[in-house]
Amino acid sequence: MYLNEKEEKIIAPFYKKLDDIIGCTLLLEWDTGSAASIFDTTFDDEDEDEDAEEYEEFTSFLFRSISVTGKPPISVSGDNLFLVNYRNFPKSIKLNGKDII
Length: 101
Hints:
Blueprint: H1 5-15, H2 18-21, E1 25-30, E2 33-46, E3 57-70, E4 81-84, E5 92-95, E6 98-99
Antiparallel strand pairs: 1-2, 1-5, 2-3, 3-4, 5-6
């Protein structure tokens, strides 16, 4: 796993817990809302324009949405999936009411 400088502090603690959360319902919380969801997969992602001056590669996490409250910074697809990466990472993630990050 390669994490860029921006990702290291933000997503590394969550990345290390992936084996422990497979199939579990998580509560992702942001200042603007929350999403009850199930972690699906992680993958290397990148900006669409490789020639852009600010182009970067980063790690994204795919979640299956159960419910959304408020207006978290995610876009839920018609298949109830959404992505999270260091750019929109939640303030906290809870499993069974306890913080895992």
